[in-house]
Fold Malonyl CoA-acyl carrier protein transacylase.
Amino acid sequence: MRKQIAFIYPGQGSQAVGMGESFLEDDKSRQFYDSADQVLGMGLSKLMLEGPQEELTLTYHAQPALLTVSSMITERLIRAGIRPDYTAGHSLGEYSALVASNVLEFPKAVEVVHKRGLFMNEAVPAGEGAMAAILGMDADKLEEVTDDATNSAGVVQLANLNCPGQIVISGTKAGVEKACELAKERGAKRAIPLDVSGPFHSELMRSASHDLAKVLSDSFLLDAKVPVVTNFRAEPETNATQLQDMLIHQLYSPVLWEQSVRKMIELGVTTFVEVGPGKVLSGLVKKIDRSVTVIPVHDLASFEKAVEELTT
């Protein structure tokens, strides 16, 4: 019996100068970089390959860059005969999952995530929003903390439920600072401010979601050929209208990553292939369930190793 495989896709924070370079001697792979440059009318590929890192990390560059690398590696995996039974992505990574599941064509997805980055950048002026990782506190207790901090200091909410004992919060700078203080007072092991450009997955992103909705309505999403386990509901979805709605909600709602991984395991997935730069999701999946197989594919060497493991 064939292993049930999920392709999972990283989000912002995984970008690095030089990512994907080892694939570029292959003409089909190179076309993804050329296509992204053409769609955006800028040298995104030069930025990806040469940096500087600070410029690449800007949300409206990081989003199309990560999508480009992940989509390129997906094509190589499928060409090698490795196909997913489910796809899922963390935040921005959900768009890479949609390309893999044939919901969005790659050039359109590049355009959409670039605009998504611009909308997110414009939604909250720099310095007014913040995010922090809270370690060692469960979601119910942390939600009490964020409710109290919202009432006393400013809007803050759960943003990423990543794995047991690791939840990211997001909101106003004052709200996040207060929530970090309260969390530590009430037993959290650590509260770590994150170096991000905005309060992603919080109510402060709602204005950006209105702009994103207009862009998505013109983007001709198709029904998924492979079910996508969405951030918003942590359930598999194939309907294009529903998927579009999930993307809009996702912008200002928590990423239910732990729940998504558990759902895929419940559906029979035993192997998770992290497709794209870094190994962040591989680490999270192992913290959720150590019994599953996790295979990160981020360069040519790891790709060749994955092909050998998954085709023998």
